[in-house]
Each structure stands twice: as C-alpha cells, then as structure tokens.
Amino acid sequence: MSHRFRAVKVVFPAVTVAEVRVNVHRVTGIRQGAGRPRLSSVVRQAGSARDQILDAAAEMFVTQGYHAASTRRIAEVVGVKQASLYYHFSSKQDILAALLAGTVKPSLSFATRLARSGEPPNVQLYALTYFDVSLLCTGKWNIGALYSLPELRAPEFEEFARDRRALQRAFARRVAAGVKAGIFRVGSLETTSALLFALDESVITLRANGVRIDNTLPATVAAGALRLLECRDQDVATAEVEAKRLLALAPEIRA
C-alpha cells in the first residue's frame, strides 16, 4: 500500500521584534536590550549599564588608585557579571580611555564650532576657556587627576594624548590670532600659550586639593586668561557678553 505525502504550507502569524521581547520577558523574566541582564537591582543613579560602569570605575580610579581597581571589582560594585562588563569595555584600559576622552572631546568639538563662528579671538578664547573649565569642574569625579598616570604613555591612550595636544593647539591658535589682531600682547607665544593652557587645567589641582568649586570659577578663569594676555578691560568685558551667546550653542556637559 503506497502512501502519499502532501506538502503542507504552514503560515506563522507575523510577530514584531517588540512582541518577541515582551514574550521572552514573560517566560524568562529577562528584559531584552543592549548588554546582558544585571545580577542585582541598579545600585547607581546613572541611566545605562555603561554609564554605571564608567561611574564606578571613575570613583575607584580617583579615590583608590588606578592599580587598586579591577574589572571584577568594578562589575561587583555595579551589580553585573564581569562578562557583562566586557560587553561594553574590552579591558580596564578601555574604561580609562573612555573616561579620559570625556574630558577633552567635548571641548574639541566646541572649539571646532567656535572656529566657524567668525567671532574675534578674545571672544572665542573666553568661550573656550569657560567651557573647558566647566567640563573639568562639572564631572562627579576629578578624572583630570589621572592625567599624570605613567600608564597613559601606553599605545592604548594615544588617542587621548593626541586629542589633548589638539585642544592645546586650539588655545594656542586663538592666542596667536589675538596677537596678530593687536588684541593680545605677549612675549614668547609658545610659552604664553602653554601657560594659558596650564591655567585652564589648574582647576584639576584645585579639585584634588579639596578647594571648594562654585559656578563662578569658569568665568573667573576665562577672564583671568584674557588678562594674562594683557587684553584691555573693554575687550574682556565684550568677550564676557558675547561669549554667552556662543556658550548657549555649546554641547551639553554631563555631570
């Protein structure tokens, strides 16, 4: 007796990705998304797992020392498996590189916007100094205190070193432009530009020494930078007013 088999076309109902995620959550209790599920409830206030890892690492690096921290310990503090941490960062060096990038890349981006603004050098320099000081002061942890780590000479941190040099050149270009326009008066352009950048980053030392930082510091340092360049009071006052408009267009600084 022969048997015949007839092909049957089975049609499954259309299901969206969102519905799949909901169904997985109903069955397993795990919400689907970027990264892996946390071991425990959220410990830190930061929004994403990546932000929480950066926050925990920053606290350890700054308060306990870079060598005292480990990816295992960082994962424990955040409440995730170490494997989940590696979903976001390949190593402890990778975490540090991300933290350092956050202290220079926003200012570099703002410097690029300023270059297209057409504003005079005193206004641009005031705005750039104000923004960079705000960036270095606003962070929850004083990441700039890690700039002196000998580990930063390793190839993994070359991008940060390159960005920081680029930021220093952005300051120097505005000093040179101001000298050319007769707004600034300096002796050695190279030395004065380096001194100006050191003034900008001096807020890192202030924080490390426990000096109370308030919201007037960015304006104080920015005005001080112009006076270091022997900028006339009138040009300083103009820069203070005009820079407010430019700063309103600056990228948001995350605390």
TrEMBL record:
Residues 47-107 form the HTH tetR-type domain. InterPro entries: Homeodomain-like_sf, HTH-type_TetR-like_transc_reg, HTH_TetR. Residues 70-89 bind DNA. GO terms for molecular function: DNA-binding transcription factor activity; transcription cis-regulatory region binding. It holds the Pfam family TetR_N. It comes from the Bacteria. Keywords: DNA-binding, Transcription, Transcription regulation. Gene3D superfamilies: Tetracycline Repressor, domain 2. This is TetR/AcrR family transcriptional regulator. It comes from Trebonia kvetii. The lineage of its organism: Bacteria, Bacillati, Actinomycetota, Actinomycetes, Streptosporangiales.
